[in-house]
Amino acid sequence: MLCLLLNDSFCFAQQIGKIVNKSLVVSTDVDLHGSIINLPKGFTLEISGGIIKNGTLVGNQTKVLCSGKAFDHVHLNGTWNVPEIRTFMFVDLSYDNALKDVLALAHPTVQNTIIIEKGDYQVAARRNADACLVIPGNTSLIINGTIRLKPNNYQRCDIICAKGNNIMISGSGCIVGDKHTHLGTDGEWGMGIRFHGATNSSVRDLTIKDCWGDCIYVGGNSNNILIEKCKLDHGRRQGVSVTKADGVTIRNCRISNVSGTNPEYAIDLEPNANDAVDNIEIENVEVVNCEGGFLATIGKKNVEKKNIGKVQIKNCNVSALSKYPIRMTSCESLSVEDCIINAKNENSAIYTKNTRSVVARNNIINVKKEILLSVKNTVKEVIGKKGFVPINVIQAEKQEIRDNKIVER
Question: What pLDDT does 9 receive?
Fold first, then answer.
């Protein structure tokens, strides 16, 4: 084992197997005893009948060939060339952040598919603002298991952070935050998935729940982001926040039980200072048991340095427990069409202010009987009295409000 201690990569190869045409062939179990091994550049690590365990491997454009288990408590660093990566390649992934070793085999210059198979996996933030798992560009991440965040007292952390181009996250699995077990009381930025400077990227089919902040956060100048067929449950702050992005589509999702800290909306479009949010499409989204439905706002600080562009809402079913089902302010343009909006309180079903162009048509607004009795003109201009205005448009240069109906629920 002297060779291992000297960290001589070719000597290491001789210790674990044989060198054949720039391949390191491992045919028997190898215990690294905590050693850090740098692999030769451009070699292939061929696992055939053995397992490497208890140490660190540093890849150098290293390929991996294996048909079964390959690693056991091995930390992976460096650069790798492994197009298909599976958790099945690892003997034991029960330790904290074991998935970091799985994702370490990915590289943005390689078109990677990472498959997280069924099972429970625990991730832990090591410091405030930590990202437990960082997904590189050109990666398809398929999550069929459950990823759970270990409770912490940090104000902010990400379970998954997607940074780069062409990141596709999907699967039948679940991402679980620490909303109900969080060890602190400060902060509101514990995210399930954060898209940060991501382009042409998506998340589909997953369940994301119990996050200290938002289930999904889109910012950092992201572009062309798709959120589709996801179930977002028990976000403490939001189901989805969009703070700096151009081209975000949220469709065929169910967002439920958002409550805990303001704003408490299913979807919040809210640019940070010097940022913009534009070209947002919200389609066929169901909002259930959330404090608020859809929100667009530029807040009160640095107002002149924020911008919200075009927002389209179609075929949604939106409710709100204590706030507005739809509250959109300071947008360039807004359209709300073919939606079912459930007004459970005295707030307007649709409220908009300081938006240049507003379209609200073919919507059905469900209201309580006592509210319905206070409304005059339920079809044309939808103007209310006694405090309840079903569709309240304030300071719009252009508006088209027609073919909406108010019905008793």
Answer: 53
Tell me which H or E stretch contains 122: strand 120-123
Question: In sequence order, what are the residues at sequence separation of 6 or more whose Cβ sits closer than 8 angstroms to the Cβ of residue 352?
Answer: 327, 328, 329, 331, 334, 358, 392, 393, 394, 396
Using CA atoms, how far apart are residues 237 and 191, in angstroms rounded to an integer?
A: 10
Closest CA to 146 of 177, 166, 129, 121: 121
Rounded CA separation 142/357 (Å): 40
Residue whose structure tokens are 């939808």: 382
- Residue 38's region, left for phi above 0, alpha for psi from -120 to 50, else beta, is beta
Whether omega for the bond prior to residue 271 falls within 30 degrees of 0, making it cis, is no
Contact predicate 66/47, CB 8 Å: yes
Give the model confidence (pLDDT) of 81-135 as tens digits: 999 999 999 999 999 999 999 999 999 999 999 999 999 999 999 999 999 999 9
Report the candidate in 258, 267, 262 with the shortest Cα–Cα distance to residue 288: 258
SS3 105: coil
Claim: this prediction has a pTM higher than 0.85: yes
Amino acid 372: pLDDT: 67
Q: Give 221's pLDDT tier (boundaries 50, 70, 90).
A: very high
- Would you state the pLDDT for residue 299? 78
